[in-house]
Amino acid sequence: FGNTPDFSNSLEKKFDWALVDFQFNVEKGVIVKGQCFSDCLFPAFIDEINRILGEGNIPYSVNGIIQLG
User: Using one digit for the tens of pLDDT, what is the confidence trace for 21-59?
Assistant: First the structure.
């Protein structure tokens, strides 16, 4: 009781510029592993998101997700 369980999640969002699908694993409130898939015409942007997700230290919170930007 009082601990965040480990889980995986997937979020998909259609923007004007691309469809973006985030898949990630969360342990103890931290995104420890994740990947972004997209039909974006700027693959370097998606590659950078995947690099950041691969670091495994993003808090699973509103502020943590804002840090991705």
Answer: 999 999 988 999 999 999 999 899 899 989 998 888 889
pTM: 0.76
Single-letter amino acid, residue 31: I
| Cβ-Cβ contacts under 8 Å for 68 (sequence gap 6 or more) | 49, 52, 53, 58
Q: Locate tokens 């592993």: which residue?
A: 33
Give the Cβ contact number of residue 36 at 10 Å: 20
Q: How far apart are the first and last CA of the chain?
A: 33
CA 42 to the chain's CA centroid: 17
> Using only C-alpha atoms, what is the Rg of the chain?
13
